[in-house]
User: Fold this.
Amino acid sequence: MATNIKQPTGKLGVLLPGMGAVATTVIAGVYAVNKGISKPIGSTTQMGTIRLGKRTENRTPLIKDFVPLTNIKDIVFGGWDIFEDNMFQSATNAGVLDRYLLEQLKPELEAIKPMKAVFNKKYITKIDGPNVKTGANKMDLAEQVRQDIRDFKAKNNCDRLVMVWTGSTEIYIQESEVHQTIASLEEGLRNNHDDIPPSMIYAYAAIKEGVPYANGAPNLSADVPAMIQLAKENNVPICGKDFKTGQTLMKTIVAPGLKVRSLGIAGWFSTNILGNRDGEVLDDPNSFKSKEVSKLGVIESILEPEKHPDLYKDLYHKVRINYYPPHGDNKEGWDNIDIFGWLGYKMQIKIDFLCRDSILAAPLVLDLAIFLDLASRSNMSGIQEWLSFFFKSPQTKVGLNPIHDIFKQEMKMLNTLRHLKGEELITHLGLDYED
Ligand SMILES: NC(=O)c1ccc[n+]([C@@H]2O[C@H](COP(=O)([O-])OP(=O)(O)OC[C@H]3O[C@@H](n4cnc5c(N)ncnc54)[C@H](O)[C@@H]3O)[C@@H](O)[C@H]2O)c1
Assistant:
């Protein structure tokens, strides 16, 4: 039976804490698409299709024609940053999109100015800026963000809002006592508990305002029991963490392929060189630790060495990120994969992915905003595992291991959409004569 999905009437406000390279690339991109200058390449909601029914039925609509998604012409952007730069200046500094394209979008980009941020240098040591809120305590700061959210909604005449964290990666913080219940979290906010970084304050504010929240960075943010409980109580969908782009995208494409062919892997060495502000922040060992934890889990979860000891028991996996300014946003992701085949004979695969970080991440921000809004209109709340497809370190329910294999993630996402519309689920496991 199809789910009752509210229609996406009016405007959707997309709020972005952190308005640097990724944020400006998605904002400028949406304007460029809306003006007919470019196409939304890499966006599942805009370009993806979905097969329905039996193969013989030939029903493969665009996803956006199948489920009622917000039209990207109805999106308005806003957000917060520690720098005062408007989106034209910020996009120019980020150096991702060329000046010629940005000039064509200048009035729209200049009109978006970041609101004052909740920031504390303790959690991101490499940067500092002037556009920062002050408050009596962390709860007071959360209240200020809630007020920003309400003001933005009223001023821009939005029907609905979503928030996607596109801020820098904070230092590694482990889940602790203060994160366990809503009461302890709120107490911690009032007492300025050290284990509550700014990203948690934004997430708390969003959820309290009934605004769906996605976390594009690896820091904990909404991935703690108190936030999950709060999201359930407030009927808000949440998801995270860390956009799956670049090297991890490649890993989750290549590793499942090697595994299904029962090829062994002795070692996987990954190194990245990048020169944008994200690279600078990740040059700090504490911020890198958040990223490292997020990147390392992927291979093991896909290969399941405990189930295939002959193939993966001794796999040596190493991930490095090096800040190298000359590359700017054009990251280079190197992978050396030592594999072995029939009778243990050794082979090597080398991947040198000359990617563009924010070009890969921007469509994910758009898709997450649009799908979270769909989830909200479909009355779905708590962790949205079907959106794991977009994350390096998917947030999952307690006691469950995340799924990293991109093809399984895709199947789960598409089946969720089919389920919403009362269509038959497709697992591609049907017998030859019946599919
Ligand atoms: N680009 C990718 O492929 C990719 C992939 C996965 C994750 N990410 C993550 O996305 C995030 C954004 O990446 P980016 O390349 O745009 O980085 P960026 O440095 O260009 O932008 C981040 C912005 O966040 C701002 N900021 C930091 N703390 C803030 C706070 N508390 N409140 C408001 N603003 C704050 C910074 O001033 C900066 O402008 C990073 O955490 C990065 O690790 C990016």
Observations:
- The first helix runs from residue 21 to 34.
